[in-house]
Design brief:
115 residues, rod-shaped, single chain, mainly alpha
């Protein structure tokens, strides 16, 4: 007796499918090829999506680092050298004058001091 599905007949899987479902072997092979291509395309899309996500994260990290560097640079630029600060007014001098003691002072502060 033969088992249902052709178990020991020596027929291959595609012959069994054709016998059971009436699907020709060529049609079945084309369908399998399309499924394999779709799986490969899906895997490739997933890999591209991961690459894009990684690049995006790297770009965001670089932008944050650049922003922090810019902020530090601006903070450094806002702090004038100590020699530019008048010891009397404790502000940046716009019209410095050199006194006999060798220090620079804001002209208006010196005039008020000596007046």
């Amino acid at each position: 007796k033969k088992k249902k599905g052709g178990g020991s007949s020596g027929a291959g899987p595609s012959q069994e499918l054709e016998a059971m479902h009436g699907i020709p072997r060529a049609v079945w092979e084309r369908a399998e090829a399309r499924q394999a291509a779709a799986r490969e395309a899906t895997e490739a899309d997933a890999a591209r999506a991961l690459q894009i996500a990684a690049l995006s994260e790297a770009a965001e990290a670089q932008a944050a680092a650049d922003a922090a560097e810019d902020a530090a640079s601006v903070a450094e630029e806002e702090e004038p050298p100590a020699d530019f600060i008048c010891p009397i007014t404790t502000e940046v001098m716009s019209d410095p004058v050199l006194a006999a003691d060798g220090h620079a002072y804001e002209r208006s502060a010196m005039e008020r001091w000596l007046a």
